[in-house]
Amino acid sequence: MLNTKAQVSKATVRRIPLYYRAVQQLQQQGVSRIRSDRLSELIHIPSATIRRDFSSFGELGKSGYGYSVGTLVDEFGKLLDVHTKEEMLLVGVGGLGAALMENNFRRNPDLNITMAFDADPAKVGTTVAGIPVYDFKTLRQHLTPAIHTAILAVPSTSQTAVVTALEAAGVNAILTFAPQPVVCGPDTTIRYIDLTSELQSLLFVAHQKGAHDRVH
């Protein structure tokens, strides 16, 4: 069983969904066990990092044997609560927000954007992929007790005001694509996705690898 009481680094937490997706695919391919070096080749994460991450949750494998794929699927699935339904709201129905609504987590039907908000009168009152778009000023009016999670696709200049309003309405889990950190309450959890930084990191690694391959 996973030791969920252990202190787990934020970097490890970010990698768990990657591990879960990879072992799910292996299970679908009929693979019953996997070694860290082979998993490393599949997901491009160093095998030492994989072993260190997995050790954060107790004994998941055996030396010389590797890891049971079925066990990893079950245990990481429990850790991620993948079978727990989660309704979410989205703020900001621009290009990115609309794309998120169109996709709406097809890989996991238990994650579901059920309503969206915007301040643009041209968007308010419309629907995107069957999801209604409301005026952000009416947040409290439309928010249901089941929703405690929000996705933000708003400009950085609007982020602080939006987060403050969401907290006041009882939303305490926020994923935002505006990378500028904001001050929030102690009960609120915010995750920032900076697409520019992620792309720059990707290009740096790719260029370093290309330079290494040219040398050898």
Biggest β-sheet description:
7 strands, mixed
Please compute the radius of gyration using only Cα atoms.
20 Å
Q: Quaternary status of these chains?
A: single chain
- Alpha-beta content class: alpha/beta
Low-confidence stretches: 1-5
Query: What is the terminal-to-terminal distance?
Result: 44 Å
Here the CATH topology of the largest domain equals Rossmann fold
- The CATH superfamily of the largest domain turns out to be NAD(P)-binding Rossmann-like Domain
- How many distinct beta strands? 10
Helix content: 40-55%
What do the pLDDT scores average to? 85
Strands of the largest sheet, in order across it? 6-7-5-4-8-9-10
Tally of distinct domains = 2
The fraction of residues in strands falls at: 15-25%
Q: Which class of the largest domain in CATH terms?
A: Alpha Beta
In N-to-C order, the SSE pattern is HEHHEEHEHEEEHEHEEH
Helices, by number, come to 8
Structural overview:
The chain has 2 domains: 10-78, Winged helix-like DNA-binding domain superfamily/Winged helix DNA-binding domain (Arc Repressor Mutant, subunit A); 86-196, 3-Layer(aba) Sandwich (Rossmann fold), CATH 3.40.50. The protein contains 8 helices and 10 strands. It has helices at residues 10-28, 36-43, 47-55, 69-80, 95-103, 139-142, 156-168, 195-215; strands at residues 33-34, 61-62, 66-68, 86-91, 111-118, 127-128, 131-135, 149-152, 173-176, 189-192.
